[in-house]
C-alpha cells in the first residue's frame, strides 16, 4: 500500500475522473465493485464526488451537462506545475484544449485536452487537492495506457509537452513503449493499428487493481456492466477489459505480486 501525500512531479498521472449521466447509479456500481465510499468534491463543473478507500481519495465522478453529448470515459489527469503553460504547450505541439484552464475551487487548476490523434487527457495543477491519495491496493489505479494507432508520432507529442523519456519495448509482434520520468515508468503507449475500436478511436485506458480478476469480471456482469475482453494472462499479471453500465471502458488487473501472495 502506498499513500501519496506529496505533490506529484510534472507529467505523473495523478488522478482519474469519470463524467456520467446518472451519478447515483454509477456510484452504486463502483461501490459494489471496488468498495468505494464517496465524499463531496469541487462543483465548478457541476455535481462532482470523490471516491474514497480507507478515507483516501482515489478517483472522481462528475455529472455530464445534459446538453453535452460527450463520450462517457475514464480520463487520466497528468500533473503540472502550471496548467496554463501546459495547455499552451499542448496547442503548440498539435493537440487541442477543450476545457479550461480554469480553477476548481481551492482544489487546484485544471484543463482537459487531447493529443493530435484525439485521445483525451486532463491537466492538473494541484493546490489543496494533490491527487490520488492511495495506490497498491484493490480498488486503486494501477496503471494508465494510451491505446492509439501507432506509437512513434504521438509519443513525441507527450515527450515534448510533459518531458517524458521513451523506453521502447523490443518486440517484433507489438508496437509499444513506456513513458518514464527520472527513469521511473509512469505510463505506456500501445499502438494497435487497425485493431483500434472504431467507436472509440485513440484513448487512454485506466487499469484498476483487484484481488481476483475473474471474480471481479463476474461481478461487473452481475452489476449491469459487460465484458469487453475476458480475463487473460499478460506481462504484468492477469487482466481483463470491462465496461460499466454507461459504457465507460476500463481494465482490471491482478498484478503478479498479488497473485503470488494469494
List the helices and strands and how they pair.
Layout (H helix, E strand, L loop, with lengths): L12 E8 L2 H12 L2 E4 L7 E6 L2 E8 L10 E6 L3 H10 L3 E9 L3 E7 L5 E7 L14 E8 L2 H12 L2 E4 L6 E7 L2 E8 L11 E7 L3 H10 L3 E9 L2 E7 L5 E7 H6 L1
Parallel strand pairs: 1-4, 5-8, 9-12, 13-16
Antiparallel strand pairs: 1-5, 2-3, 3-4, 6-7, 7-8, 9-13, 10-11, 11-12, 14-15, 15-16
InterPro entries: Anthracycline_SecMetBiosynth, Glyas_Bleomycin-R_OHBP_Dase, Glyoxalase_6, Glyoxy/Ble-like_N, VOC_core
Pfam families: Ble-like_N (PF22677), Glyoxalase_6 (PF18029)
Protein name: VOC family protein
Largest beta-sheet details: 8 strands, mixed
* CATH topology label of the largest domain: 2,3-Dihydroxybiphenyl 1,2-Dioxygenase, domain 1
Structural class: alpha+beta
What's the total number of strands? Answer: 16
CATH superfamily of the largest domain: 2,3-Dihydroxybiphenyl 1,2-Dioxygenase, domain 1
Stretches with pLDDT under 50, minimum 5 residues: none
Strand order of the largest sheet: 2-3-4-1-5-8-7-6
Q: What percentage of residues falls in helices of 4 or more residues?
A: 10-25%
**Count of DSSP-assigned helices:** 5
Strand content: 35-45%
Domain VOC: 12-126, 140-255
Pfam families: Ble-like_N, Glyoxalase_6
Protein name: VOC family protein
InterPro entries: Anthracycline_SecMetBiosynth, Glyas_Bleomycin-R_OHBP_Dase, Glyoxalase_6, Glyoxy/Ble-like_N, VOC_core
Write a brief structural summary.
By secondary structure, this protein is an alpha+beta fold. The chain is built from 5 helices and 16 strands.
Amino acid at each position: 500500500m502506498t499513500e501519496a501525500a506529496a505533490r506529484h512531479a510534472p507529467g505523473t498521472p495523478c488522478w482519474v475522473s469519470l463524467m456520467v449521466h446518472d451519478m447515483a447509479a454509477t456510484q452504486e456500481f463502483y461501490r459494489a465493485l471496488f468498495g468505494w465510499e464517496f465524499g463531496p468534491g469541487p462543483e465548478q463543473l457541476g455535481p462532482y464526488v470523490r471516491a474514497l478507500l480507507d478515507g483516501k481519495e482515489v478517483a472522481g465522478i462528475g455529472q455530464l451537462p445534459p446538453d453535452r453529448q460527450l463520450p462517457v470515459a475514464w480520463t487520466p489527469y497528468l500533473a503540472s506545475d502550471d496548467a496554463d503553460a501546459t495547455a499552451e504547450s499542448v496547442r503548440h505541439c498539435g493537440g487541442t484544449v477543450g476545457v479550461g484552464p480554469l480553477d476548481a475551487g481551492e482544489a487546484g487548476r485544471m484543463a482537459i485536452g487531447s493529443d493530435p490523434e484525439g485521445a483525451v487527457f486532463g491537466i492538473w495543477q494541484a493546490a489543496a487537492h494533490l491527487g490520488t491519495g492511495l495506490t497498491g491496493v484493490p480498488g486503486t489505479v494501477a496503471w494508465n495506457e494510451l491505446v492509439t494507432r501507432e506509437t512513434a508520432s504521438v509519443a513525441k507529442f507527450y515527450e515534448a509537452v510533459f518531458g517524458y523519456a521513451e523506453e521502447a519495448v523490443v518486440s517484433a509482434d507489438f508496437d509499444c513503449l513506456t513513458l518514464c520520468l527520472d527513469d521511473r515508468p509512469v505510463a505506456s503507449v500501445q499502438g494497435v493499428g487497425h485493431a483500434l475500436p472504431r467507436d472509440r478511436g485513440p484513448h487512454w485506458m485506466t487499469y484498476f487493481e483487484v484481488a481476483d480478476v475473474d471474480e471481479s469480471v463476474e461481478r461487473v456482469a452481475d452489476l449491469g456492466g459487460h465484458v469487453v475482453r475476458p480475463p487473460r494472462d499478460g506481462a504484468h499479471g492477469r487482466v481483463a477489459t470491462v465496461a460499466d453500465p454507461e459504457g465507460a471502458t476500463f481494465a482490471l488487473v491482478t498484478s503478479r505480486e498479488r497473485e503470488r501472495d494469494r
